[in-house]
Amino acid sequence: MSLLAGYPAGAQVAQNDQQHMNRVVPRAGAPASFADLTEQLQPAVVNIATRQRVTVNNNNPFAGTPFADMFGGGGRPTTREAQSLGSGFIVSASGYVVTNNHVITAEGRGEVEEITVTMPDGTEYPAELVGRDAASDLAVLKITRDKDFPFVNFGDSSQARVGDWVIAIGNPFGLGGTVTSGIVSAVYRNTKQGGAYDRYIQTDASINRGNSGGPLFDMEGNVIGINNAIFSPSGGSVGIGFAIPAEIASPIVDKLIKGEAIERGYLGVRIQPVTEDVAEALGIPENHGEFIQSVQPGEAAEKAGVQAGDVVLKVNGEDVTPEQSLSYLIANIEPGTTVPIELIRNGKTRNVKVTVGKRPSEDELAQQTFDPDGDVQNDPAQQAGEGILEDTLGIRAINLTPQIARQLGVKEDTTGVVVTAVDPNADAGRKGLQRGDLILTANYSRVSNLDELETVVKSAKAEGREAVLLRVQRRGRPAQYVPIRIR
Description:
Pdz3 Domain; disordered N terminus; PDZ; protease; serine-type endopeptidase activity; signal
């Protein structure tokens, strides 16, 4: 049973003084006003601000010339202070606060130095990060004072229906407590962004930047969703907002509060929906099942005999549909559990038994899906790189995995590091290194990971050398040696 269940709906206070808050719920149907309900709930909705230290590249247009040092930094990365704003809500009298992970996560290559929670009356509290889960985009904070906090409870989002009234309370654009109303536009909306938790409540209640992490309430004052994202060609609200359903969020929040690890099931496959064209080609119904594009070596799917080209129809007896994706079904199965999977191969239905594996972390998954031609700024592999080579070689890189090796067209047992970004003002940029290049050796020493490459660079600097000789391989070309000057 949820730790957060079992309390009366609405913002509550501990009943130590035997004083009870009146439960105010608008009449059924279209409410004459949301004011009474809002007055009861708003004390438990908070604003969240972070102070961050962010590393940025100082692109010096005079790098490499006698004028480089006149402008400071010489093109090397510098740091700046940044801030972020979001929303959250208190779920216990002791001060546990729920919000989105992205609200309290540093942008780019930054570090969060301080988190502040502001109550509706303007009182500020320093917040401690209790736990966070990147996959579901949830986080729990803790604030403390000498008396109990007002709090709200999770409701049963599985009972939400299209057309139900909802209200959202949050901190859009840093304006403070703001209330908007609307209806449930869709339940279990798949946004086609992929991932194990691409399954949202859609609402037309106005949601904007800063509403992230705030609650979406039903008319009984229960949190049925956590406002998470919007669809907007303009950047503002166009009436299409998405909230993480409470039935997904509540168990994860419970585990984060208890300090328990969040473990999810994993198959090790790359999938795509069964589109009209795929369905026509295979002679199967559209939007039923998901198509297996590739299978990762050594993972659960391969061990069970699942193959690229299969279409998975059911997992443990449950249909795979756009609203209930393969990723979602598998993620919610405990690792180590053996389940039946029904699939189609060569027009014939087959059943296999799969012992579900453990889903890697989001950073590990990011490093498995490297697009050599992708957008560097928005690339998760770019963010996953440790950046230890920026100050020395002017590059960012990640370790080569068998999955990335396949994407680069090299053998899966190849060792090396993959360049994810290059500073154009560094010697590496001037020598033509680019995203997707594979570094095999440094000063004739084979490098199988970032640490080994940095060790070679440090040794070269200690010996007074001003450059290292890298052996670099680019897709479709033979490997070649390139001397790169050390910064």
